[in-house]
Every structure is written in structure tokens, then in C-alpha cells.
């Protein structure tokens, strides 16, 4: 049986002062980050708030175990909290007290589930805390009269699941919620909430099987639950059969992978007749905006414990989505069944509740989260052949209590995807997410909505547990072994050499064999090729020799995450002579046919008399290829994005012709049958290209890096050119260089601005920013340091990037580790991705000339500005165990 602690402690109500205060302290031996982590049940501890006499404001301190979440509850769900409840906690890690935070009232159960449910607030995630103070102030600020009866405080410890404990044995950093436990791991085979045996503490027992080397068949829109998915209940008179959907199901982290295996539900699930609409929520707590995606599972587990403690059957939401776009199964009963939730009082019947982990009143939702919410909505509404862009009439089943705005029995017409505030007196889902509901509906209605969700989670620190954090992929094609790739896992503290995996073609499970001149790692990309929700690694090797004497035909290697110990090799170009093709000089991954699995794209730069070519492989459906130029090409790059907003991934590829020396850029369009060549754009190409929705209008744009005038007609010193995506393709450009107003420095021949480009929302303002490397910039701080290099950070706006607020980032920047030296080539490669899981893109800048060609990469965490760096990390070739000629920083992904 589950052990739920009910520890009642005294609190203080200052009679007549309008404030109830409560504090618990007591340092314990429990500290976050312990090495010997063991599975520990989640627990809820209850403290009653009691009066201690008129005028008394003292705080009685009581020892308590550490907690990570809390809430207030009271006897009746219909009772109002006529005032404001605030809380502050003390961090175990720092010993500091937080600011006062308001607890929001939440009572959403209706129908038969509402019987006996306690009223209360939303749970507040605090992280590891060992002391708390609560004050409840009445509306008039002068009296406690009218406070609900039976008000109490519940401290929630989400515990450590057996899966997390097993993963912690190889994990680089323990989860913030994971404590050294006094309790032993439950024996293997203990029934879990989903009816599956709980994971063993043995790491091998919790490791998910690697994908097979052969490609799996395409999933159908009504794909059955995978072995790791919580099983759907068998059909019965009270349990409906699952319906197929016209939209493929997205990857979902099942409750069996995040819940306490000993969780006790209050009864059994109820089922709706159908799903008519989707209600979008946010958890509405500021701290959720800064909590790493690594802790999402623990946060959701705390929500579940809180909702069950109130008397709900299970967690109230049907699904939850975090900043990194991870989708979690919420309420149990079957992810593909119309399980009735407890998320919108009066409107739980025939609706589906999706909650975003964050407060969008104070921070915008991420694009990854919007895409995931749209995918769930499209899949579940697709089971009932309902358009996400249509309207629906719903009838309120609740009275005008608990925030409900619509009287019982009254009908209201709403969009199929609407916000909680449309039916309830609440700010939920926050102004940021509410403003994006139209975009979510448009996303969900796209013909290519079944596309694979972008993911860069290929080999997390926990090994077998998804954490949503991006991994840094560093290609080293000039390594002495014939080329190598280094995978450095994302961590809340940043990216370093710690926990890295170095791969060559001689590594276990990697197809092929290392040979001199292969250039394995010349290009890299990440995408979910086999559709299992994990990112897979794509590596180009243009110098690979094919069979039948095809020298330098080139090849691509796909390694399946998270193990990266099995995969597939692509070295055959259908219907073409391949000698000298040098396939893999550039690679990209995207779901071109929207079947739920990423496909592959590659350029072959050609050699001697071999034409420059393109090639695409649609997972499980064959290849297509063609010519980009009738001569060999060089300086190739490619990127994938949805440029026309139809849901299918497209490709933009750039290269320099060897006959004219001019750079070109081509567009390849995705569709139901896969990728097709559209043609050459009427603008100059360059040496780098990146796709992102810079103006946030639902269409991905591209930015082309054009470092040299002779190739692109670029401004002296190089430039970047943004090309806007539209429903019909590309239209409109904007060019920026170092003589643009607001851009630091001055345009000088040879600076090579645009040698590398990457995009991400660095400052968390909802607009995509651009990083552009200028590795040949000379630094003259105290004497000329030729080709020391710099990187420019262009701030995103509602119209895309412009020069205003641009920042120059170099090893001379305050707080940036390392030293500016001649020929460092800082900016030879750049990467902007969320390596720490806080919803902001972090920055990694490579310098392939560091230490005479050994190379390095430097990490700077996502912040509001880059004028100075806090938490920067330097990683050189020696720390990576790479050769002195590896040129670390030659190329990086994402």
C-alpha cells in the first residue's frame, strides 16, 4: 500500500489581523544531488492552520522532511477563499527565502467526481525546500472572517520513481527533486498505476530497447499503444473502444514512466461519449517558467498527488506539455479514450484538457509547446472527424460557483480549441497562450499535421529518461581517425565535456568502418527518424567509398537515440552514378511526408566531372534525387522548416558553384508524397542557412549567411539575409551587415560574417533571435589578433531580425571564458538551442582554430542580454579527449 503521511503541525492565525501564518523549518540530512539515490514513494503531509490567540504573530517551527510542492485545501469545493493566500519557502540548496507568491484557487471537478472533493488552490512547485510560511489575508485585509472551514496546508514530496533511481546510477546530475532516500526500492514486479510491473532499480531493467537497425513500418493514424505506453482499458459496457484518427498520434510519455508506481487513485475513470472540444490551460505559476524540463516529470507527479489529495480520481488534466514540447499523459484510463477530466468546472463533459507547464501571463509559450498542443488537439479531435478550426455548442453542467461563468443548463458556442477563461473566471491559460489559440487551431488544421515533432533529445544525461534538453552534436571530420562525432548531453548547468559520448565508425553498433579520408562528421543533423519520440543522429561522410569501386561516393549514417548503438547506413543513390558524388557534404532532417517520422536530405557536392546533387530518403518509402548544378559545388549547407505553413517539412539548401564561384539557394517542398524540387530562389545563396519562424506568423523563414562578396554580392565583411516564408513560398528579404544601424563593429573585407548561423529565442521574449559567426574578424584590443573571430547576436522582433540591439559576443566579452588569440576563429560554428531546459535558447560558439587547430566550444546560458556572460563554460579538445588536429567547432548541431 502507498504510504501517505498526514503530519499535522500547528500554524498561527493572528486573530483580528486578517493573516494566518504558518512556518515549518528544520534542516534535515536530505540534500538534493545525493549520489546514492533510491526510489522513494511520493508523499503528502498535512498541516492544519490554527488560531493561537489574539494579536499573536509568532511562528512555531517544526521539523519536516523536504518537499517540492505545496497547496492549501479546505473542506468544501464550493466554499470561497474571500481573500488572498500567499506563501514563501526556503531553498535547501541556498538557504534563501523566496519572495511571497500568490496561490491561485482551483476547483474543477464536477458531476459524480465532485462528491467529497475538497476545495483548494493550484499546487505551487517550489523545488527542494525545507521551510515554508503561509499567510492568508481576507479581502478587506482586517479580519479572518469568511475563510473556508478546515483550511490546511499540504506539503508534497514527489518522491523518486524506480525508473529515475535506476537512471540516476548513470546520470550526470541528479534531478533537482531527487533526494537520498531512507526507504528501500519497492520490489520488482510491484503493480503500477497502469497495471504494468514497476521498473526495477537495476538500470538494465529500466532501459528502453534501442530501435532496430532496420527501418520500422510507417505508423498508421490509429497506431496501437507502444509497449511502454500505459495500456488502454479493455472495452466494456462502461469503457468505450478506442477510435482510429485521421491524424497520427504524437509521441507521448505515459503515466507509467512519470507517476509513482504506488499511487492510489480515488476510484476509477469516467468516460465521455466523445470529444467535442479541447480546453487549453496553463499551470499559472511563475516558477514553472524557470524550472528545467528535466524536472517536468516530478512537477506533474506533484500535481497528481495534489489533485488526488483533494479527492479527484487522478490528475485533472488529460495531457500536459512542457516548454520543451514534451507531451505527458495526464489522467489515466487510456490516452486514446474519451476520459472525463477535472479541469473546467461545468465543462468537463465531452472535452479534453491540455495544460502547459508555465505561466503565460508573465512569459510567452514556446513554439515547441504550441506545436505539441496542436498535435494532441488534432489527433484527439481527428478521432471524431472534427475540424479544429470549427465551432461547437456546449452546455454548462455546473452552477455559478467555483469560478464558472455559465449558468447550469445554458449553452454557449465556442471554438473547438478554447481557453479556460472562456468559461471560467480565471486568467488561465494566460495572455500569452490565449493569444496563440488561433495559431494552435491553424496548426492543428494543417494537412501535414501528422508530422514528426522536432526533437533534439537524443542522449540525455539520465540515459533512459527523456528530459527535453537538447544535446550538442560536434562534428570533427578532420579527426585523425577519419572523422568523429561528439555528443555532449544537455544539463541544467550547461554543456561541457562531462558525460560526452565520442563516436566513430569503429564504435559499437555504428555501421561501417573508419577509414582515412571518410570525413565522417562533415555534417550532422537531428530528427526523430523512427518515430519513437527520441531524437536520432544523422551523420554525413562525403569521403566514404561505396561498394563496386565508387570512390568518394559519400554516405549518411543514422544512429537511433537514446543509445546511439544501432542505426542504418545510406550509401546508395537510386538511379545515379555515385563515383565522386560526395553525398553527405550537407545533411538535414525533417518530416517531408508528415507520416510521423523524420526523413533525410543530403547534398553531394560532386567531384571532378560529377555534378552537384541532392538526395532525399523518405523513411520506409524509398529515395528521390536530382541535380542542383551541372558542375561540382562547394561550401554546402541545408536546413529544414515549414516555409509555406502546410505542416510538411521543406528544405532550403545553399552552395557555391565551382564554375562561376557564385552562391545559389534552392527550395525543396514537402508534401504527401514526399520531397520535390521547386527550383532556385531569385536571391544569392551563401555558405550557411538556418530556418525559423522569426516573425512568429506560423511560416518558417530562412536566414542565409553570406560571408564573401565574390560569392553572394555581399556587403564587405559579409552579411546575413532573411527571406520570409509565406503560404505560397518565399517573399520579401531583409539584409543586415556590420554597417547596418545598431550592429556593432564595422564591415571590413575578410570578416566573414555569416560563415555560420543558428536561431533560437535566447532571451525568452517569444521572438526568435539569430546568431551569426564572423570567424575572421580581427580583434584589436591591445594589438591586432587576426582572425580571432566574433559572433553577432541579432535580436528578434515582430518583423524578424533587425540591427537594433545587436550584441557582439567574443572571448573579450565580460564573463566569457577563454582568451582572444590570433587564428582562434571564434564563430566558425554556432548553435542556439535549449541545452538547460529553461525554455530559452542557450548559445554555443565554436572556434575551430583554437590552439593551432585543436578547436573548442564555449557555452553561454540563455539570459536577457549577452553584453556580459554569467555561467559561461569553455571546453577544449583536450577536455574532450580529441586529437590536436580535430578542429573542434568545425560544425555543430542543432
From TrEMBL:
Cleaved signal peptide residues: 1-25
Disordered as annotated region, ranges: 182-251
PROSITE patterns in the cross-refs: FG_GAP (PS51470)
GO biological process, one term: peptidoglycan catabolic process
Domain spans labelled Peptidoglycan recognition protein family: 250-399
Name of a matching Pfam family: Amidase_2
Keyword vocabulary terms for this entry: Glycoprotein, Repeat, Signal
CDD domains in alphabetical order: PGRP
Domain (N-acetylmuramoyl-L-alanine amidase): residue spans on this chain: 263-430
Molecular functions (GO terms): N-acetylmuramoyl-L-alanine amidase activity; zinc ion binding
Highest taxon, organism lineage: Bacteria
Biased composition, class Low complexity, residue ranges: 182-236
Similarity-based family: Belongs to the N-acetylmuramoyl-L-alanine amidase 2 family.
Protein name: FG-GAP repeat-containing protein
Organism in which the protein naturally occurs: Streptomyces indicus
Amino acid at each position: 500500500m502507498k504510504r501517505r503521511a498526514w503530519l499535522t503541525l500547528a500554524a498561527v492565525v493572528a486573530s483580528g489581523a486578517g493573516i494566518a501564518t504558518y512556518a515549518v523549518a528544520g534542516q534535515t540530512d536530505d540534500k538534493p544531488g545525493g549520489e546514492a539515490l533510491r526510489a522513494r514513494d511520493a508523499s503528502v503531509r498535512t498541516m492544519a492552520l490554527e488560531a493561537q490567540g489574539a494579536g499573536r504573530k509568532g511562528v512555531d517551527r517544526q521539523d519536516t522532511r523536504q518537499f517540492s510542492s505545496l497547496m492549501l485545501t479546505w473542506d468544501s469545493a464550493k466554499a470561497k477563499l474571500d481573500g488572498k493566500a500567499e506563501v514563501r519557502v526556503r531553498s535547501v540548496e541556498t538557504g534563501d527565502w523566496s519572495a511571497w507568491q500568490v496561490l491561485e484557487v482551483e476547483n474543477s471537478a464536477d458531476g459524480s467526481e465532485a462528491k467529497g472533493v475538497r476545495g483548494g488552490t493550484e499546487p505551487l512547485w517550489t523545488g527542494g525546500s525545507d521551510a515554508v510560511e503561509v499567510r492568508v489575508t481576507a479581502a478587506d485585509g482586517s479580519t479572518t472572517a469568511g475563510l473556508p472551514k478546515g483550511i490546511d496546508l499540504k506539503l508534497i514530496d514527489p518522491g523518486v520513481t524506480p525508473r529515475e533511481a535506476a537512471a540516476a546510477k548513470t546520470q550526470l546530475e541528479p534531478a533537482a527533486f531527487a533526494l537520498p532516500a531512507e526507504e528501500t526500492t519497492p520490489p520488482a514486479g510491484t503493480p503500477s498505476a497502469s497495471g504494468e510491473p514497476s521498473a526495477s532499480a537495476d538500470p538494465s531493467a529500466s532501459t528502453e530497447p534501442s530501435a532496430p537497425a532496420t527501418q520500422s513500418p510507417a505508423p498508421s493514424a490509429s497506431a496501437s499503444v507502444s509497449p511502454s505506453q500505459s495500456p488502454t482499458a479493455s472495452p466494456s459496457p462502461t469503457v468505450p473502444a478506442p477510435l482510429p484518427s485521421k491524424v497520427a498520434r504524437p509521441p507521448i510519455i505515459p503515466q507509467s514512466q512519470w507517476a509513482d508506481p504506488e499511487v492510489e487513485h480515488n476510484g476509477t475513470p469516467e468516460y465521455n461519449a466523445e470529444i467535442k472540444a479541447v480546453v487549453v490551460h496553463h499551470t499559472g505559476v511563475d516558477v514553472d517558467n524557470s524550472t528545467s524540463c528535466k524536472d517536468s516529470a516530478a512537477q506533474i507527479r506533484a500535481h497528481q498527488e495534489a489533485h488526488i489529495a483533494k479527492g479527484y480520481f487522478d490528475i485533472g488534466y488529460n495531457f500536459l506539455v512542457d516548454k520543451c514540447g514534451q507531451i505527458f499523459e495526464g489522467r489515466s484510463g487510456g490516452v486514446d479514450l474519451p476520459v472525463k477530466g477535472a479541469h473546467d468546472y461545468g465543462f468537463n463533459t465531452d472535452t479534453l484538457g491540455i495544460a502547459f507547464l508555465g505561466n503565460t501571463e508573465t512569459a510567452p509559450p514556446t513554439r515547441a509547446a504550441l506545436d505539441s498542443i496542436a498535435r494532441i488537439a488534432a489527433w484527439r479531435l481527428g478521432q471524431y472527424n472534427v475540424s479544429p478550426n470549427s465551432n461547437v455548442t456546449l452546455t454548462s453542467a455546473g452552477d455559478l460557483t467555483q469560478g464558472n461563468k455559465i449558468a447550469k443548463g445554458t449553452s454557449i458556442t465556442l471554438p473547438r480549441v478554447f481557453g479556460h477563461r472562456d468559461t471560467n473566471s480565471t486568467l488561465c491559460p494566460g495572455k500569452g497562450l490565449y493569444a496563440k489559440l488561433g495559431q494552435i487551431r491553424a496548426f492543428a488544421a494543417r494537412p501535414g499535421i501528422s508530422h514528426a515533432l522536432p526533437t533534439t533529445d537524443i542522449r540525455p544525461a539520465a540515459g533512459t529518461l527523456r528530459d527535453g534538453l537538447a544535446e550538442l552534436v560536434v562534428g570533427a571530420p578532420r579527426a585523425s581517425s577519419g572523422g568523429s562525432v561528439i555528443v555532449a548531453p544537455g544539463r541544467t548547468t550547461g554543456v561541457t565535456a562531462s558525460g560526452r559520448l565520442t563516436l566513430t565508425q569503429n564504435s559499437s553498433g555504428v555501421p561501417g568502418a573508419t577509414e582515412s579520408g571518410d570525413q565522417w562528421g562533415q555534417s550532422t543533423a537531428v530528427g526523430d527518424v523512427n518515430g519513437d519520440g527520441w531524437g536520432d543522429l544523422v551523420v554525413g561522410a562525403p569521403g566514404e567509398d561505396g561498394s563496386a569501386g565508387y570512390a568518394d561516393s559519400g554516405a549518411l549514417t543514422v544512429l537511433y537515440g537514446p543509445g546511439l548503438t544501432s542505426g542504418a547506413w545510406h550509401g546508395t543513390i537510386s538511379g545515379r552514378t555515385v563515383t565522386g558524388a560526395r553525398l553527405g557534404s550537407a545533411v538535414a532532417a525533417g518530416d517531408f511526408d508528415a507520416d510521423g517520422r523524420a526523413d533525410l536530405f543530403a547534398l553531394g557536392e560532386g567531384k571532378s566531372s560529377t555534378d552537384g546533387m541532392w538526395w532525399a530518403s523518405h523513411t520506409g518509402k524509398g529515395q528521390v534525387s536530382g541535380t542542383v548544378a551541372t558542375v561540382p559545388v562547394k561550401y554546402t549547407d541545408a536546413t529544414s522548416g515549414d516555409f509555406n505553413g502546410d505542416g510538411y517539412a521543406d528544405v532550403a539548401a545553399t552552395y557555391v558553384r565551382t564554375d562561376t564561384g557564385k552562391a545559389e539557394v534552392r527550395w525543396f517542398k514537402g508534401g504527401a508524397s514526399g520531397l520535390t524540387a521547386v527550383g532556385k530562389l531569385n536571391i544569392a545563396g551563401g555558405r550557411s542557412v538556418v530556418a525559423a519562424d522569426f516573425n512568429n506568423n506560423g511560416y518558417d523563414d530562412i536566414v542565409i549567411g553570406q560571408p564573401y562578396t565574390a560569392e553572394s554580392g555581399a556587403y564587405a565583411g559579409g552579411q546575413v539575409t532573411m527571406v520570409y516564408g509565406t503560404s505560397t513560398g518565399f517573399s520579401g528579404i531583409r539584409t543586415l551587415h556590420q554597417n547596418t544601424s545598431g550592429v556593432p563593429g564595422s564591415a571590413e573585407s575578410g570578416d566573414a560574417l555569416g560563415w555560420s548561423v543558428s536561431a533560437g529565442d535566447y532571451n525568452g521574449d517569444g521572438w526568435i533571435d539569430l546568431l551569426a559567426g564572423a570567424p575572421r574578424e580581427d580583434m584589436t584590443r591591445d594589438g591586432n589578433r587576426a582572425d580571432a573571430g566574433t559572433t553577432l547576436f541579432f535580436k528578434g522582433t515582430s518583423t524578424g531580425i533587425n540591427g537594433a540591439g545587436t550584441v557582439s559576443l567574443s572571448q573579450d566579452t565580460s564573463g566569457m571564458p577563454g582568451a582572444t588569440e590570433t587564428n582562434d576563429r571564434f564563430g566558425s560554428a554556432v548553435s542556439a538551442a535549449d541545452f538547460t531546459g529553461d525554455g530559452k535558447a542557450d548559445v554555443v560558439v565554436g572556434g575551430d582554430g583554437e590552439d593551432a587547430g585543436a578547436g573548442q566550444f564555449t557555452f553561454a546560458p540563455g539570459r536577457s542580454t549577452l553584453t556580459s556572460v554569467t555561467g559561461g563554460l569553455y571546453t577544449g579538445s583536450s577536455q574532450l579527449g580529441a586529437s590536436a588536429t580535430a578542429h573542434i567547432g568545425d560544425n555543430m548541431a542543432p
